[in-house]
Amino acid sequence: xxxxxxxxxxQQRPLSPHLQVYRLHINMVMSILHRITxxxxxxxxxxxxxxxxxxxxxxxxxxxxxGLFATWLGxxxxxxxxxxxxxxxxxxxxxxxxxxxxxLDIPTVDFLSWGTIVLSVILTVGLWLYLAFxxxxxxx
Length: 140
What we know:
Elements: H1 2-7, H2 26-57, H3 59-69, H4 72-99, H5 106-135
């Protein structure tokens, strides 16, 4: 009986649907971004803990850490952490709306997904422009 099976050709099994089958939708991208920003916030919380530790350690170490955050690379990291926090928060509000049973039709899902991206960028740019003008980095 086993010999009869070995002579037959192996049965062709269907492949699972994968990226070549599915078209990438905005809500799929937002799901991935929500996870990425969540992981990024862990990194940001470590930076916040380091900054607080430096503040508790003394003025010299605090000045050193503040100096690192004031470099162009430090500012870019802080802007990225700010965007991740705002984007993750707005994504959480979007999920809260969906958990209430509202906005589950495709046009509303697309609108909320695009709105999350646009609003997070606008709020991040607005916050950092406000900080830049308040600190005197720019003037009108």
